[in-house]
Amino acid sequence: MDNNQNLNDQELARREKLEKYKSFHVDPFGKAFKVTHSVKNIRDAYTKKSPNSLERLKPMATVAGRIKNIRRMGKASFMNIQDKTGNIQVYMGIDVVGKKTYELFKLADIGDIVGVTGRIMKTRTGELTIRAEKYTHLTKCLHPLPEKFHGLVDVEERSRRRYLDLIVNEDSRAVAFARPRLIRSIQEYLDGQDFVEVETAVLSPILGGANARPFVAHMNALDKDFYLRIATELNLKRLLVGGMERVYEIGRLFRNEGMDASHNPEFTTIEAYQAYSDLQGMRKLAEGMIRKAAKDVTGSDIITYQDKVIDFHKPFRWISMADLILEKTGVDFRNIYEFEEAKKLADERGIKLEKHKNTVGHVMNEFFEEFCEADLIQPTFVYSYPIEVSPLTKKGKDPRYTERFELFVNGRELANAYTELNDPIDQKERFLAQLKAKELGDEEANEMDNDFIEALEYGMPPAGGIGMGIDRLCMLLTNQENIREVILFPMMKDR
Which of 58, 238, 348, 384 is the most buried (most CB within 10 A)? Predict the structure, then answer.
């Protein structure tokens, strides 16, 4: 079978050049190459220098990168090459590099990876340029790159072929490099608060730590099913019992649920737990962590997201769920004690309740999600959640509610925090309530974790805990509408 039968003319032409490289004794797929400068190094050092100053200094640099364009003009040519820090113009003159090297350069195509050693100069138009003295072919690109303005623009195709997206789309490259800065910022903040970063198990025999549908994996060695973790919470709390006091984990979670602009089944969170703290401690931690991340990633703690100005600089709003619902709907759930009364209100407003949502607290949470959530544009802590939807949280002064907040920005949940439940007797009762909900059809309910109960019986100090979505924070700070834009290799439907 002819492996070339499905190739277009340009692809065939590139493959035909492979033998020609060998006539120059050049491996078309290269070898190690010593780089002395990045494009950023060169621009930082020489952008402000005058042409005469560069002529006197005669600075030299060796760079490597991908050819983004070529302008051939007989015995002299220009090309732009791009490394991870940016792109720069290169001047290739046959009188400088020699006839043999220039003939080798004639085999170059846009997309090839090359190395260049030369003197830094400025052209008559003032463009910073490397005047090549040595040219090294490193890797042949066998496919033409998508055209700059009308090429790889489809979101799904860019997500499938992220390597190509990073080559041709500057915005995608910027996001890819911003995300590690975000994670490093969070690590620096928490390390500075005397937290220690840990790693915990991804496979779990128990479904717990959050309300979500899991992925199930079978372990052959034990002939037993395990869950890919839906949260890191319970293991991190075990470490508080063990005396580590301040711990955090930045890790992947897996929830076997839908995919949309703000959800991916595989995603990243930061969870942090602090002994001897509480909900107010987590409030302070969240504000400081997000404020620093915004500054480190964007340069400011006041950002623009999809034409909305989001202000992380001033203190975030703090309001109870009951007060917010009262503000939006006129209904005060603090004065409602019977489910039938709450259900009547839900029916009047067109809210359909699933079978397991059979308490006032469930209806209250539905009201919040339906009438309040989408309007929370500026950073807002919503606190005092119903106990029915907070199985791992300490009760508040009113036992119907818990010491929990969720942080909302641009109408989406960004973080979730508790004063942690450390009473093993209460915790066991909550798990039993979750089992009853599971029997009534709640596929997201927690299971009984007897080992965790036993750990609490040894004594977990009073503590605060918080979880925050890294992907959603990255979306905000890089001005992206779709979560796939901030995950290098997101889950995709089949073509």
Answer: 384
Strands 308-311 and 401-409: unpaired
Q: Could you report the per-residue pLDDT of 232-282, keeping only the tens digit for each?
A: 999 999 999 999 999 999 999 999 998 998 999 999 999 999 999 999 999
359 in Cβ contact with 341 (< 8 Å): no
Q: What angle do CA 143, 147, 149 make, to 5 degrees?
A: 155
The secondary structure element, H or E, covering residue 287 is helix 279-298
The two structure tokens encoding residue 243:
């005396």
Provide the whole-model pTM.
0.91
* pLDDT tens track for 55-86: 999 999 999 999 999 999 999 999 999 999 99
Cα 407 from Cα 384, distance rounded (Å): 12
Residues 6+ apart with CB under 8 A from 347: none
For residue range 1-53, what is the model confidence (pLDDT) as tens digits? 456 678 999 999 999 999 999 999 999 999 999 999 999 999 999 999 999 99
C-beta separation of 473 from 410 below 8 A: no
Q: Which residue carries 């040519």 as its tokens?
A: 77
Which contiguous run of DSSP H or E holds residue 241? helix 233-241
Q: What tokens appear for 351 in the block?
A: 């809210």
DSSP states of 77-119 as a string? Answer: EEEEEEETTEEEEEEEEHHHH-HHHHHHHTT--TT-EEEEEEE
- Return the bridge partners of 251, or none: 269
Could you identify the residue written with the tokens 């106990």? 387
8 Å CB contact between 207 and 449: no
Helix, strand and coil in the chain, % to nearest 5: 35, 25, 35
Cβ neighbours for 283, distance < 8 A, ≥ 6 positions apart: 316, 318, 381, 405, 417
Rounded to the nearest 10°, the torsion over CA 450, 451, 452, 456 is: 100
Helix (H) or strand (E) holding 464: strand 463-469
Full DSSP string of 401-432: EEEEEEEEETTEEEEEEEEBP--HHHHHHHHH
Give how far Cα 440 sits from Cα of 36, 352, 437, Å. Answer: 65, 16, 5
What torsion, rounded to 10 degrees, do the Cα atoms 359, 364, 369, 375 define? 180
Count how many Cα atoms sit within 13 Å of the Cα of residue 65 in the half-sphere of its side chain: 25
Q: Are 153 and 127 in contact (CB under 8 A)?
A: no
The structural domains of the chain, ordered by start, are: 9-145 (2.40.50.140), 167-316+378-485 (3.30.930.10)
The length of the chain is 495
Q: Which of 293, 277, 208 is nearest to 469 (CA)?
A: 293
